[in-house]
Design brief:
The complex is a heterodimer of chains A (329) and B (383). Chain A is α+β, with helices and mostly antiparallel strands. Chain A is 53% helix and 10% strand. In chain A, the strands form three sheets. Chain A has a four-stranded mixed sheet. In chain A, strand 4 and strand 5 form a beta hairpin. By secondary structure, chain B is of the alpha+beta class. In chain B, helix 6 packs antiparallel against helix 7 and helix 8 crosses helix 11. The chains are: A alpha+beta (329), B alpha+beta (383). Chain A: This is Acyl-CoA dehydrogenase, N-terminal domain.
């Protein structure tokens, strides 16, 4: 199966089931059950689950286009998180719960993305993975307008039994999922912004004919492509979540997010600031996901410590040997 | 958008070239101080180029019947990456191997291929590119150097400038006007191979702000060239140059110009035992950008390997890559200046100074930042 054969039906599903009106409704506290049911019925949630356990047995690298599609369509549910959680749960032979699952690493005091639309959290603390019902936690809105993130207070003594993370770096997997979603949202913003620049007439011609805008849009395009390539590097690390690959993905995506979102707004002018115009669905997400699970400095530091621990290697050798490559020759 | 740039892996057979070339390079750079290695593809060492040729590391993309290795762009990527990472002085063969040879293979006639390509593969024929003129920089289509038909070939008059490596080169592939006037823009241009030993040619090196003289002015005063000087089709020079620039703009040399400095800085902070957040953040930032840009450059290499001419994609990677390699000396200089009590080797100081001063050229050579962004904008459908 080619990447297109895998991703195209997913795009069509999301185009139909998750148009901007549905995104807005769920962000306003509306019911998300129908959208979840459609995605569940499609089977994509088990993409990473081994075939022996009834899944599609795909790798993280293979589903990179799906993770990007989620950002591209601003899907207001933790689909990537649930895909990863189901695969990790299947490895233990444990019973997987129904409904959306969010991933959490550490005793996070930062807002947990998608917590408002999830039933469970798969949380890693001290090398132990636990599945916790969010209804058993203290929850408060993040205060971020339209955000589905929540501040979550985890139970002091979680009742759920845990299992050893055994090398799975959940923080890295979260970073990869967010970076891929950012790459998808960034690509959508680039398309919208180029289209707008070609339509909007000022001084008697499309504003996209102005060199000043062309140069900005070229930079935006470079950043969007860099986000996508970095997300692919992250996904290539696989389900263990290689920290170096994840760090590349999230460092690049988070640093690019500001440039991409700001350029989209600069080109759109006032219309882009309005609620009813769709631009904000994607730029708001870029800003949230930039910080979610660690921003550009956090991940640069993690990568930098790995790099300094291998100081005898050249940078080319470090990249070749520590940051997994993938793709076809 | 730009989905054509997708993850691309180096084939194992090409990856296998890395160790043998590394041994050869280690010998060549062993005696060079860091700031000489920072010259990299501006550093001239004809003996090294001949050694690389003898060992079969030049002309990797060319057919065997012309002395090449018939391996393709991925093999070349590995060799080029190793040369740049080590800061090997590769200027002698650089342009010939990168773009003149593919140009001659694609557009040359059989005699031209037989004459030039085996010499390039042996590291014995060095090329420069005659594009810029005093009045034609970014506006390349306005070139005025003119070649007129004679009974025996061509008569060349005019001037090129900022020609990298001209003082050391055997040949120049020049973009010249063969019909019409500068107002005719892209039509009426042709490419000629000029033997730089021909009578009527004066080459005057230009000293740069660091004291090096890697580029030059080249004057043509009634230079008589044979019929065989024309490469490709008369009047198709613009199209040929555009295809050539995809080769010129796509390689890791648009990312790695500050690589020896990065590695020397890593060694320095490791020796100092620094583990603080700011140091780690800078090390991580540079590593993340190298990893991403390398993946993008490999993706462009994949397009070249598939026989495409990825003009827009190459421009995109070059602009992002040169922005990075240009920023590195400033970042590292600032870092060391923030640690005034640390002993820093004179070598490292000289390298930061050299790269900081020369770095503006990274986004000038091979097409300016503004021109590249214009090409990207066209690729986006804005022009």
């Amino acid at each position: 199966m080619t990447r297109e054969e895998l991703a195209d039906p997913f795009h069509r599903l999301l185009e139909g089931a998750c148009p901007p009106a549905v995104v807005r409704a769920i962000e306003s506290g509306g019911d998300w059950g129908d959208l979840w049911a459609e995605i569940e019925a499609s089977g994509y949630l088990d993409a990473l689950v081994p075939e022996a356990s009834g899944g599609a047995g795909l790798t993280l690298a293979e589903i990179a286009p799906l993770l990007m599609a989620l950002g591209r369509h601003a899907v207001p549910l933790p689909v990537a998180d649930t895909m990863i959680a189901r695969a990790l749960i299947a490895r233990t032979g444990g019973e997987r719960p129904d409904g959306p699952i969010v991933l959490v690493a550490g005793a996070a005091s930062a807002p947990v993305a998608f917590a408002a639309v999830a039933v469970h959290a798969l949380i890693e603390q001290g090398g132990v993975l636990r599945l916790i019902r969010l209804n058993d936690c203290a929850r408060a809105p993040s205060g971020d307008p339209g955000s589905l993130a929540e501040l979550v207070g985890w139970p002091e003594a979680p009742g759920a039994t845990g299992w050893p993370a055994s090398g799975v770096d959940l923080a890295a997997l979260i970073a990869i999922a967010r970076a891929a979603a950012m790459a998808g949202a960034g690509d959508r913003l680039l398309e919208m912004t180029v289209a707008y620049a070609n339509e909007r007439i000022q001084f008697g011609k499309p504003i996209g004919k102005q060199q000043a805008l062309q140069q900005q849009l070229a930079v935006m395009a470079e950043q969007v492509v860099a986000m996508r390539m970095a997300a692919e590097i992250g996904c290539a690390a696989g389900l263990e979540g290689n920290a170096a690959g994840a760090a590349v993905a999230k460092r690049i995506a988070s640093a690019a997010a500001v440039i991409v979102a700001d350029t989209a707004h600069a080109v759109h002018g006032a219309i882009g600031i309005s609620e009813e115009y769709d631009l904000q669905l994607y730029t708001r997400r870029l800003r949230q996901w930039r910080l979610a699970g660690g921003g550009e400095t956090y991940w640069a530091q993690r990568l930098g410590r790995l790099r300094l621990a291998a100081a005898s290697l050249t940078s080319v050798d470090f990249v070749r040997t520590h940051i997994t490559a993938t793709g076809t020759a | 958008m730009f989905e054509s740039l997708s993850p691309t892996q180096l084939p194992a057979a090409d990856e296998a070239l890395r160790e043998p070339v590394r041994t050869l390079i280690a010998e060549a750079v062993a005696h060079l101080p860091l700031d000489r290695r920072a010259r990299s593809w501006q550093g001239f060492d004809a003996a090294l180029s001949r050694k690389l040729g003898q060992a079969g590391f030049l002309g990797l993309t060319l057919p065997k019947r012309y002395g090449g290795a018939e391996r393709g762009p991925f093999a070349r990527f590995v060799i080029v990456e190793e040369l740049l990472a080590a800061g090997a002085p590769v200027a002698a063969h650089w342009i010939a191997d990168r773009q003149s040879a593919p140009l001659i293979l694609n557009y040359g006639n059989e005699d031209q291929r037989q004459f030039y390509l085996p010499r390039i593969c042996r590291g014995e024929a060095f090329f420069c590119i005659g594009m810029s003129e005093p009045g034609s920089g970014s506006d390349l289509a306005s070139v005025r150097t003119r070649a007129e038909r004679t009974d025996h070939g061509w008569r060349l008059n005019g001037q090129k400038i900022w020609t990298t490596n001209a003082p050391h080169s055997d040949y120049m592939i020049a973009l010249v006007r063969t019909s019409g006037t500068a107002e005719d823009r892209q039509s009426g241009l042709s490419q000629l191979i000029v033997d730089l030993k021909a009578p009527g040619i004066t080459i005057r090196p230009i000293v740069d702000l660091t004291g090096d003289a890697h580029f030059a002015e080249v004057f043509f005063d009634n230079v008589e060239l044979g019929e065989d000087a024309l490469i490709g089709t008369e009047g198709q020079g613009w199209k040929q140059v555009t295809a050539e620039l995809a080769f010129e703009r796509s390689g890791p040399e648009r990312i790695y110009s500050s690589m020896v400095l990065i590695d020397a800085w890593i060694a320095h902070v490791a020796a100092m035992g620094r583990l603080d957040g700011a140091t780690a953040a800078l090390a991580g930032r540079m590593t993340a950008e190298i990893a991403t840009l390398r993946a993008m450059s490999l993706a462009v290499t994949g397009l070249l390997a598939a026989g495409q001419s990825p003009v827009v994609e190459a421009s995109l990677v070059k602009d992002l890559g040169t922005t990075f390699e240009q920023a590195v000396p400033a970042w590292i200089g600032d870092d060391l200046a923030a640690h005034p009590d640390e002993p820093v080797s004179p070598d490292l100081h000289r390298t930061i100074a050299y790269l900081g001063q020369i770095a503006p050229s990274f986004s000038l050579r091979g097409g300016t930042r503004e021109i590249l962004r214009g090409i990207i904008a066209r690729g986006l459908g804005l022009r």
